[in-house]
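Revision sheet: structure tokens.
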Amino acid sequence: MSLKNAVDIYKRFEKTKIGHFSATFIFPIILTGLTVFLRYRLNLSGMGDNYLLIYFVIIICALLGNMFSGVFATILGIFTLEYFFFPPYHEIFFVRNHAFQLSIFFLQGIFFSWIIVSQKESSISSTEQRDWFMNVMGNIDDGIIVTDRKGIISYMNSTAENLSGLELKEAIGKNIRTAVEFLDSKNNKKININNLYRKQVSNDFSSNMILNKKSKEGIPIDYLISDLKSGYKKNELRIIVLRDITERRKVYEKLREDEEKLKRLTSSSVIGVYVADLRRGIILEANDVFLKMLRYSRKEFEKRKLTFFDITPEEFKNTTRNALEEIKVKGMVNPYEKEYLKKNGDKIPVLIGASVLDKRKQTAIAFVLDLTEHKKSESYSSRLASIVESTDDPIISKDLRAIVTSWNRGAEKLYGFREEEMLGKPIIKIFPKSRIKELDYIMKTLSSGEALENFQTKRVTKKGKIIDVSLTISPVFNKFGDIVEISVITRDISKQLELERQKDEFVAVASHELKTPLTTIKGYEQILKREVSKFQNPRMNLIMENMEVSINKLNRLVGDLLEVSRIQLSRAKFASLRFDFDKMVDEIIESVQAGEKKHKIIRRGRVDYKFIGDKFRFEQVLSNLLNNAIKYSPESDRVIVDTKKENNKIKISIIDYGIGVNETQRERIFERFYRSENASQKFSGMGIGLFISSEIVKRYNGTIEVGNNPDGKGSIFTVILPLRK
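Predicted:
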């Protein structure tokens, strides 16, 4: 146990009743008895030694107890000296010479006790004051940093620790200039706080300073630097008080923003504002917008004192009087429509609302909105509604819950439902059961602000007939940019689809019928080629080769037409067998490369996966893409096939260095029979290969995309197929 702990324990004990009694009476008796014991034990015979022992007892008692303890020890010492140390021993005779010595001893004992107790109380008071000061400083809301004249930190309270990000033990002994960073809030430059120490000592707070918190954003503060007078030395210490004004700044900023808003409102290019005297009806102040509405200049307004009734048409004067009565009673008037007169006598429709500004002075502020454009818009909307109602095209609108809000005559004619049968009803009423899930897709697409154009689907009429329709579905926005309604324009494409179906049937039959004679011609061509080769006539051999190329091209064309027809009529058959995907790619590359001398087909990557599907169909896709890449890059000498597996998908990219595909072509390149004007002039073909490839990939829930070659020339066709278990 340390001495400090022992003293603390004794102090707590001394404050109790038993401890106080012991310090006053028992300790003096015990210590006095101890001196007698020591006197005989050490065989001390000199009077100086005896007095010294008794003085020791008095000092200890005064130090541990109080003034009374010292006095009691002094009196007890007198009797001890007389009884034990002055002859005759063991008797109490206060003889004259002893009495003088004991009187001096008594006065000295009282003096020593007083001195010790005074010093002790002074020390205790100083400690308590220091503790009180530290407690107050620790709980004050402002940050307190105490330094010497050179700026060396000796103390900082908890608030200062939080503001600066420094702990007290970390800051003590450091110069405030290096320990804490202060910035000028005007130019964000570092401030040498020691310079402020020399220049600025006052009793008022100063601002425009930022305290950079350790590793965090700076804190705006007010600060005060003052001398701290201590003891006999003046100006020994300096104190800096830091006040966090973040919240005050926020309040000021809010007030400033409110002032700016009011300023913008009064100077707005949309809302007219004026202040008026309610008793006399005179307009006292007006912003430029209001004057512009009425076609008055600022000089004309100031020269001529306008009243409410000067600028109000006769038919609206009673309305104005009623509004004045309402504002006097309620303190405000709800916005209402009226008209004002311009300087030239023309009328302007307005929406006006007002509120009392000062009851004592009977002034009010009014806000005026020009409704001219709004009235024009209402007229336009009315005409537009009339056009929509009279058109034969079915036009429907619905809210964001898919509830019908308008149903024109064209919709009645197509679906058979009257307007009153559909208004307020869910649009899903005209959805076939198999198409109900479409609604979620449509609403999700429209909620992002996108429109759906030429969306082909099926709908059901009142009689239960399923019809094919093409929909243009668009979101309707309000002036704030929020979607408020959905517009649906419908086209009945049943007849169009039937014609296309008949055309596909015809193409299918024609293609099928052409297959047989083509097969025969191909056979005769092979026989004729063998016979001609016997004559070893180069010209005849060249003719036979050209004939074979033409027959093969015609055969592929008829085959593609037949394939398109099967796909359109949903007659195409797809096998479902497991095959090695990498091997299939290698075989197609080898097959195409065998007939191609100029272009080198480069293979990159492998997927190491056995795919389940129709191998022949995937060979069609890859063969089409490779042949296109070669055909549309005549100036190049290479085509790259890149295959990889990632995120449970197979990606096959065909990269060429040819003419490329522009943005317009990308949107239509996979359509049936589509060929760009540029390509059709330079390259042969019917534009069905990519359509067939796209349809095959779709059957396996895959996608086919086209983009630009990152090398700057050519294009990339990428087929993405989900892995099938």
